[in-house]
Amino acid sequence: MEQNASQRQDYLFQRYLQDTITEEEYAELWELLQHREQEDVLTGRLQELWEAARHAPPLLSHGQWAEKFRKAKAARPAAAWRRLLPRVAAAVLVLCVATGAYFALRQKPAQAPALAAQQPHKKDLPPGGNKAILTLGDGTELVLDSAANGQVGTQGNISIVKLDSGRLAYRASGGHTGEVVYNTLTTPRGGQFQLLLPDGSRAWLNAGSSIRFPNVFTGRERKVDVVGEVYFEVAADAQKPFIVQAAGTRIDVLGTSFNVQAYENGSMATTLLTGSVRVTRNGASLTLKPSQQALATGSGELQLVRNADLDQVMAWKNGVFWLNGTDMASLARQLSLWYDVEIVIRGNISQRFTGTIPRNVKASRVFDVLQETGSLHYTIEDGRIIVSP
Predict the structure, then answer these.
(1) For 342-379, what is each residue's pLDDT tens digit?
(2) Which fold has domain 129-313?
(3) Cβ–Cβ < 8 Å for 195, 185
(4) Segments making up each domain of the chain, as ranges
(5) CA distance 339 to 362
(6) Lower Cβ count inside 10 Å, N or C end of the chain?
């Protein structure tokens, strides 16, 4: 019987993590957790499930998880709270336990779980999603998030196909005929999209990014222009190098996977995962090996980072924000871009955060967890998030 209850608990907790749990299942999960007597077994199992679901590192020790669980059970929500949907984040046990996997809390102990319930979520902000605009060579704009799957355009014998809600592909039938046309795929703030280029290379665009590319690669090289953040998996072709132009920097590739971050604030970083690339800027060049990164300094010079944090670099593509001693200002920039919202910081928030945040949750859930650290408070007002100590 205990085994069946444990399996049911695992199923319900996974439903919670996926944001698919119903109100009735939510109440059932609460009751199961309340009646489990072996808290050390329970908290360990919930931690395993959370880390497996979020691909997150073990951020809290077993003892810290157990203490969070003890506090959560002592703050059992009233019946009225239990009727609320799971999005009312830290007012319920499950998120009180799960918050431990978001952050390794530092400097200040966590406050009582019910604190976050004080924040009204009537004006909550949804996470970003698959959104993009394709601008054709003649200036025609196609809004891809509202377009139906299937062929959305043609250029000569090139078909432009929306594969699903987040992917676009260029497909040629026979040899190329007609002129080379340059198109631009742009993701807005709060958007992301994937592009299958004419040569079979793949590009993933983070929010607020763009890539300019031809409908077919002719000549002796394959060249694209990038703004923002794009991850590439380049199809190998030794006879035709792949070249990325970004923020005054040239990246030469034969066949490899790498990430380029070149937002319009002038900073630029190229991080290599596999293969080899050569990064050139202002006459200087660096040849990268896997796990190395080329950073453009404020003076325009290139700086080599030999052991880049690949988990942090690739977190956006893997569906999370990866924090490693991140300050509030840096975190606010990431969250502002993804949630397409202005974040105003009033006062000095000195705490740094370490852990992971899923990108598929509403803004209130993220800030509820931040608020639980005791280092800040927040409100959502007039489409802005106001953060203060």
Answers:
(1) 999 999 998 888 878 888 888 988 888 788 777 889 99
(2) Jelly Rolls (2.60.120)
(3) yes
(4) 2-118, 129-313, 318-388
(5) 8
(6) N
**Torsion-angle region of residue 347: left (phi > 0), alpha (psi -120 to 50) or beta?**
left
* Cβ(124)–Cβ(366) below 8 Å: no
Query: β-strands 167-172, 191-196: how paired?
Result: parallel
Do residues 162 and 168 touch, judged by C-beta distance below 8 A? yes
What three-state secondary structure class fits 79? helix
Owner of token pair 């606010």: 332
Residue 26: its H or E element:
helix 23-34
Chosen CATH of 318-388 out of 3.40.50.2000, 3.55.50.30, 3.30.2010.10, 3.40.30.10: 3.55.50.30
Query: pLDDT-based confidence at 202, cuts 50/70/90?
Result: very high
Q: Are strands 249-253 and 257-262 parallel, antiparallel or unpaired?
A: unpaired
Q: What tens digit of pLDDT does each residue of 171-187 get?
A: 877 665 668 899 999 99
Nearest residue to 317 (alpha-carbon basis) of 283, 347, 284, 359: 359
